[in-house]
Design brief:
9 helices; three-stranded antiparallel sheet; about 280 residues
Length: about 280
Amino acid sequence: MSVDHHPDAAPTAIAVTIAGSDSGGGAGIQADLKTFSALGVYGASVIAALTAQNTRGVTGIHDVPPSFVTAQIDAVFSDFAVTAVKIGMLSHPDVIAAVADGLDKYRQERVVLDPVMVATSGDRLLVPEAIEVLRTLLIPKAMVITPNLPEAAALLETAMAQNETEMQEQGERLLALGPKAVLMKGGHGSGAESVDLLIEPHAVARLAAERIDTQNTHGTGCTLSSAIAAGLAKDLPLAEAVREAKAYVTAAIKASDRLTIGQGHGPVHHFHHWWGEGKSQ
């Protein structure tokens, strides 16, 4: 059966998340799709791993076979006019290689890579031998990578940055691995402000927001990277997409205490703009 499309319809901004599933709904694929929807972008997904997870931690990881990751990529990218890609948890080298091949095959350039290695709860999500494959195969294909301070240290095999000078130095070392930009996230730092640094070959932008006192921080990294991808999907320049994403995540964290979800690190409030101010949600 043929499908008739309205000839005057504007192209739909479509972002795809390639990541792990979070059964608790606060991070991973679920957080990405909520973020895309909240920011007016159609979201599709390629599930690279399943996790048994809640606000208290990760109790199991079930890896999706690389061939089936490829099958999902082919199904989505052969049919949809994808305008941006967010990549999150890829736990094994063969899956990373399958994703890298898919990006090449479908000529994806607006790629946001969140090098997810450890969950908010402290649970490791990436096997150690996958880190080198991530460095060599995937990071060079990214428009921007978005490591937090522990992830940047792991990628560089060095100590965690303690101040903005060290953040910039590590970001420049990561830039040398081949991405077009690096967003060093300062959420693991201290002080009244949470400072991120967007490092490009000829520019460094400092993005600061108030540090919010809440334990509901599950999925913040996933949400930020997918918000950047949503901005890129809507044709925003990278720096503007990053600024808007930072503002969205800050508001989602600020509103997170309106939600009562689980007994550990709760999720941010992806739909704070629509769900109102009430506490009984």
